[in-house]
Amino acid sequence: MLNRLRPALSRVVTPIGTALAKTGVTPNIITVTGTVGVAAGALVFYPQGELFWGTIAITAFVFFDMFDGAVARITGKTGVWGAFLDSTMDRVGDAAVFAGLIMWLTSAEGRDLPLAYLALYCMVSGVVISYAKARAEGLGLKCDVGIAERSERLVISLVGAGLEGLGVPYALPVSLVLLAVLSTITVGQRFSVVYKQAVGA
């Protein structure tokens, strides 16, 4: 869904990517730095209950991580390794966000086990969504469908956590329930489209 915004984002990201390319920084360094920042923000702030500031830190590094593709295109340093690294680091960052939330929700101060289980479900379903696409494409099949791809899932989880940190009632529970529902639908969509291709339906 948010992929429709890519042309507009490209007009913003490209000039910044051009400036970064002139500094000599490589796309892979940007990718790893962005992931380390996201993981640090999630695993340092969230377990302490600092959901708002953790979300601010994570969001800053998520935006920073958007520039690796632009720098790669500008410098001509695109390739299989960079694509692999970027996709893998995305999974690490996503897992860190939910791990931080789960650590908070299972702590003495923020104890809410049902919500922790829901966050765990969201984390696992996100992995399944990503793996389903990767495995399908590895088999030569198309699997680019889904109501909740990575961008949507990240926005929902971060908005929920950030608003919860500001004291907005039920922000985190609502966002996790919504994310769980949309993720489940997305898994179903990907299984369906791959099944139809695989069996020739």
TrEMBL record:
**What positions does the entry give for a CDP-1,2-diacyl-sn-glycerol binding?**
28-31, 69, 73
The answer to whether UniProt assigns keyword Lipid biosynthesis to this entry is yes
Keywords attached to this Swiss-Prot or TrEMBL record, sorted alphabetically, are:
Cell membrane, Lipid biosynthesis, Lipid metabolism, Magnesium, Membrane, Metal-binding, Phospholipid biosynthesis, Phospholipid metabolism, Transferase, Transmembrane, Transmembrane helix
The active site consists of 90
Please name the InterPro entries in this protein's record. Answer: CDP-OH_P_trans, CDP-OH_PTrfase_TM_dom, CDP_ALCOHOL_P_TRANSF_CS, PIP_synthase_PgsA1
Reaction equations catalysed: a CDP-1,2-diacyl-sn-glycerol + 1D-myo-inositol 3-phosphate = a 1,2-diacyl-sn-glycero-3-phospho-(1D-myo-inositol-3-phosphate) + CMP + H(+); 1,2-di-(9Z-octadecenoyl)-sn-glycero-3-cytidine-5'-diphosphate + 1D-myo-inositol 3-phosphate = 1,2-di-(9Z-octadecenoyl)-sn-glycero-3-phospho-(1D-myo-inositol-3-phosphate) + CMP + H(+)
Q: Which organism is it from?
A: Actinocorallia longicatena
Q: Which residues cross the membrane?
A: 29-46, 52-71, 114-132
Return the cofactor note field: Contains a di-nuclear catalytic Mg(2+) center.
Cofactor(s) of this protein: Mg(2+)
Query: Which residues are noted in the entry as Mg(2+) 2-binding?
Result: 65, 86, 90
* EC numbers on record: 2.7.8.-
Superkingdom, taxonomy of origin: Bacteria
Q: Which residues does the record give as Mg(2+) 1 binding sites? A: 65, 68, 86
EC supergroup of this enzyme: transferase
What's this protein's name? Phosphatidylinositol phosphate synthase
Name where it's found.
Answer: Cell membrane
Chief localization class? Answer: membrane
Family stated for the protein in its record: Belongs to the CDP-alcohol phosphatidyltransferase class-I family.
User: Quaternary structure per UniProt?
Assistant: Homodimer.
Its annotated function is as follows:
Catalyzes the conjugation of the 1'-hydroxyl group of D-myo-inositol-3-phosphate (also named L-myo-inositol-1-phosphate) with a lipid tail of cytidine diphosphate diacylglycerol (CDP-DAG), forming phosphatidylinositol phosphate (PIP) and CMP. PIP is a precursor of phosphatidylinositol (PI) which is an essential lipid required for cell wall formation.
Pathway, per UniProt? Answer: Lipid metabolism; Phospholipid metabolism; phosphatidylinositol phosphate biosynthesis
Bilayer topology reads: Multi-pass membrane protein
